[in-house]
Amino acid sequence: MDKLWAPWRINYINNNGKTKGCIFCRAKRNKSADQVIFKTAKCVCLLNIYPYNNGHLLISPLRHVAEIEQLDREEVLDMFQALKRAKLLLKKVLKPQGYNLGFNLGRNAGAGITGHLHLHIVPRWAGDTNFMPVIAGVKVISQSLEELAKRLKNADK
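Given the sequence above, the corresponding structure tokens read:
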């Protein structure tokens, strides 16, 4: 039997996917956190540590709000400027052929974190879906989060 190596998932397994406190509020306080790619005046961009695909990024406002309508004009503009910056970094480093962008608003819409609004940026490539998720219930991510974070941060200089 082949083995898939994904050691970063052990915390998710041990905690049943639960972390204490808000991951976005923790990220805004600690810019040196490995998964934080960049911070702006109004938001933070970080790697999703349980990604759907390699390079899966999250952008959230620094202010802890749950709904889009709670954002002020400056936060909206800053989030979309951060989206442009993040997309350019992904394009430079990973060269995806497409992207899924979106908000999951509410638990019934698929939100894992409902209290702090966040935007998903998921790079996509032709053939990036295969039999593994369907047959084995496993998604293969071929690059470590640490290596990817380092490459994205270096590309942002």
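DSSP finds five helices and five strands in the chain. Try to locate this feature in the token string yourself.
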